[in-house]
Amino acid sequence: MVVLSNQSALNELFLAKTCNPPTMFTEVPVVDLSRPDAKTIMVKACQEIGLFKVVNHGIPLEVITRLENEALKFFMQSQSHKDKAGPPDPFGYGSKRIGTNGDLGWVEYLLLSTNPDIVSPKTLQLFHQNPQVFRLCVEEYIGAVKKMCCEVLEEMGEGLGMGERNVFSRMIREERSDSCLRVNRYPACPELKEEGALSGRNLIGFGEHTDPQILSVLRSNNTSGLQICLPDGTWVSIPPDPSSFFVNVGDLLQVMTNGRFRSVKHRVLADSSLSRLSMIYFGGPCLDEKIGPLPSLVSREEENLYRELTWREYKNAAYKTRLSDDRITLFQKSADHTHKQT
Ligand SMILES: C=C1C[C@]23C[C@@]1(O)CC[C@H]2[C@@]12CC[C@H](O)[C@@](C)(C(=O)O1)[C@H]2[C@@H]3C(=O)O
Ligand SMILES: O=C(O)CCC(=O)C(=O)O
Ligand SMILES: [Fe+2]
């Protein structure tokens, strides 16, 4: 359970003003991976919204539910037990604190590297505390979701008319790809519906942000909460669908497509009666990968909107920012905040 200790921390978790009941976004683009029009629909969705839903994704339900059940078993343990796998370094178990720069959310989570060779002390502790089955479920899930992520990126490559369809996917397939898996649990917060100070307020589960990597692949249980910001600035709720995956564009993909694809701002609100469990795969390149607009995606008349940075440089700088900061400006040509340390 997420424990909030003082009033000021608590206030920070709430949206400044109570929002109207969230508008359900009924027009989420649906990409059927088994259909030939998949690439066209996903390119349009990435340009206009930055998010789409994938059906016929080929990931067996058992692989998803096995990991979901193991994660739930972990989260149901005592706080002192869970804390042994935290605080995150950045991997491991975390509660309420997101990143290291003061962001708070009504959430507890596990953050894991997808590279089996990068097992941080906190992750080792986590795997050690739990039967070997947890590690196997994580590996099985990562293998399946990574494969699907690469398939999506290849369809995108084709849809964008790039000569080679694997320009994006090879970055994720790389053995040293810096990808990670996050499992978030947002406990229900009954105080939101009770009479009192919290009644009718919105509780931030995970504050607004864009994902820094290339592509994020999200699966959640049947609890709503995920919201995206549309190009006109309105926030809309994404109806949950546990049998599908939601894919969103990350900052690096916005940069590589020279702004054609939109790294979509999103956030999660907590619910008064249902807890939400989400598992997100963040597909990132190797730390040394140089990221900038791809020449094949910048037409002659267009100018390069972004300069080139390695993923290491961008990630180091991004991880020094607050969740809601506009990090992509670090790629802007006038910006000079390269952080060269490892
Ligand atoms: C506040 C932060 C948490 C975050 C690192 C950061 O400084 C800014 C980006 C955040 C984010 C968002 C997407 C992923 O959940 C995440 C793991 C990532 O790569 O960037 C988190 C970072 C985190 O939780 O450490
Ligand atoms: O938990 C969710 O549904 C989304 C969380 C998120 O956006 C993130 O972890 O980056
Ligand atoms: Fe995110």
Describe the structure.
- By secondary structure, this protein is an alpha+beta fold.
- It has one domain: Jelly Rolls (Sandwich), CATH 2.60.120.
- It has nine helices and 15 strands.
- The strands form three sheets. The protein has an eight-stranded mixed β-sheet. Strands 1-10-9-12-7 form a five-stranded mixed β-sheet, with no helix packed on it.
- Strand 2, helix 2 and strand 3 form a beta-alpha-beta unit.
- Helix 2 crosses helix 6 and helix 3 crosses helix 6.
- It binds the ligand C=C1C[C@]23C[C@@]1(O)CC[C@H]2[C@@]12CC[C@H](O)[C@@](C)(C(=O)O1)[C@H]2[C@@H]3C(=O)O, 2-oxoglutaric acid and fe (ii) ion.
- 2-oxoglutaric acid binds next to strand 6, strand 8, strand 12 and strand 13.
- The site of ligand L4NPZUNZ has 17 residues, from strand 5 and strand 6.
- It catalyses: gibberellin A1 + 2-oxoglutarate + O2 = gibberellin A8 + succinate + CO2.
- This is gibberellin 2beta-dioxygenase.
- It comes from Phaseolus vulgaris (Kidney bean).
- GO terms for molecular function: gibberellin 2-beta-dioxygenase activity; metal ion binding.
List the keywords:
binds the ligand C=C1C[C@]23C[C@@]1(O)CC[C@H]2[C@@]12CC[C@H](O)[C@@](C)(C(=O)O1)[C@H]2[C@@H]3C(=O)O; eight-stranded mixed beta sheet; binds fe (ii) ion; 342 residues; Jelly Rolls; 27% helix; five-stranded mixed beta sheet; disordered N terminus; disordered C terminus; binds 2-oxoglutaric acid; alpha+beta
